[in-house]
Amino acid sequence: MLHIEGSIASLRLKQPFSIAGYRFEQQEVLRVTARDGACHATGEATGVYYLGDTAQSMQRDLAAIDSACWRGIDRLTLQRMLPAGGLRNALDCALWQLEANRRQLPLHVLAKLPRTHALLTTMTVGVASPEDMALAASCYVGARAIKLKLDGSALDGERIRTVRRRCPQVRLLVDANQGWDMAHLESLLPAMLDCRVELIEQPLPVGADDDLRGYRCPIPVAADESFQQLSDLEEMTDKYQLVNIKLDKCGGLTEALQIAREAPRHGLGVMVGSMVGTSIAMAPAFVAGQGAWIVDLDAPLFLIGDAQPAAQYGNGEIDFPVLWKQRWPEATSGSA
């Protein structure tokens, strides 16, 4: 019989990380271990902080589930049993890995995908002074894509220009995390066009992004906070050009793969990102990102320590060369 247990791990960041309206100094995650006889697998979820989905709330919800519910559980049953969010993500990813371990099959084979390959990933720079952001961007040795967090202040334009001067060749993206209004967006367009910005992520607050409906922005705009799960796709079609799939938002790899297939049918490109997390969380996102236009899976680089075996970073890419044989450590409390 399948046995499920969960515990909270505290991840320490190398330094505080700021975005519009929020500052990260450490991150607690829920790790769920699924055991079936000699096989076990671990899934990790951060939750969605701006929706109140936290490690603590996920652990409480997990504890409230009757153990009898795990008898005969599979990924499809799980989709009906729990709503999208962090808890379902941790459970879903654990079930994927458990089946891969049990059947000794690569994860991408179970997902009916071609063999995985290294992915170009953005390297993220948190909100700071223009000079500090340029320095941080230049410290990413080998980076080929940089994403700048911006906060809606008067410094945003200079942040973009200063980073571009320091890093003239990289792909440049910006992420407002709901921190702009339309006036700020339009005021930044000259700087963004001059500096060859390729993507604007979530410029307007959720609920205010109807202003983007029909707006012809010369730079593609991606939905992050406005887009949570598969059922949101239709609403995105005339406001955004891409959707950012995060497993913590949509509830795991199962729905992430569905979104990746369905988004192009709605005329939307695919971006795959993550919350703060270790390589346990990056591995299934890496699978989901195999066909994505943009991948933003650099979260382990912000941590003091990572789960082993860890994602490999080099030449601006993320790779999991032994993804098919992962044996993640059992869920324990404490740091990564």
Based on the model shown, name its key terms.
globular; TIM Barrel; Enolase-like, domain 1; 2 domains; 14 strands; isomerase; Enolase-like_N; 336 residues; alpha/beta; metal ion binding; Enolase-like_C_sf; racemase and epimerase activity, acting on amino acids and derivatives; eight-stranded parallel β-sheet
What does this structure look like?
- This is Dipeptide epimerase.
- This protein is α/β, with parallel strands linked by helices.
- It folds into 2 domains: 3-104, Enolase-like, N-terminal domain (Enolase-like, domain 1), CATH 3.30.390.10; 119-325, Enolase-like C-terminal domain (TIM Barrel, Alpha-Beta Barrel), CATH 3.20.20.
- It contains 11 helices and 14 strands.
- The strands form 3 sheets. Strands 5-6-7-8-9-10-11-12 form an 8-stranded parallel sheet. A 3-stranded antiparallel sheet has the order 1-2-3. It has a 3-stranded antiparallel sheet with strand order 4-14-13, with no helix packed on it.
- The radius of gyration is 19 Å and the shape is globular.
What's the CATH architecture of the largest domain? Alpha-Beta Barrel
| CATH fold call of the largest domain | TIM Barrel
Q: In which order are the strands of the major sheet placed?
A: 5-6-7-8-9-10-11-12
Number of helices: 11
* Model regions low in confidence, pLDDT < 50 over at least 5 residues: 328-335
Shape: globular
What distance lies between the first and last C-alpha atoms, to the nearest angstrom?
29 Å
DSSP, total strands: 14
Which bin fits the share of residues in helices? 25-40%
**Can you tell me the CATH class of the largest domain?**
Alpha Beta
The CATH superfamily label of the largest domain reads Enolase-like C-terminal domain
Report the mean per-residue pLDDT as an integer.
Answer: 94
How much is the radius of gyration in Å? 19 Å
Largest sheet: 8 strands, parallel
Order of helices and strands: EEEHHHHEEHEHEHEEHEHHEHEEE
Number of domains: 2
* Beta-strand content bin: 15-25%
- Content-based structural category: alpha/beta
Domain Mandelate racemase/muconate lactonizing enzyme C-terminal: 130-222
Pfam families: MR_MLE_C
Active site: 149 (proton acceptor), 246 (proton acceptor)
Keywords: Isomerase, Magnesium, Metal-binding
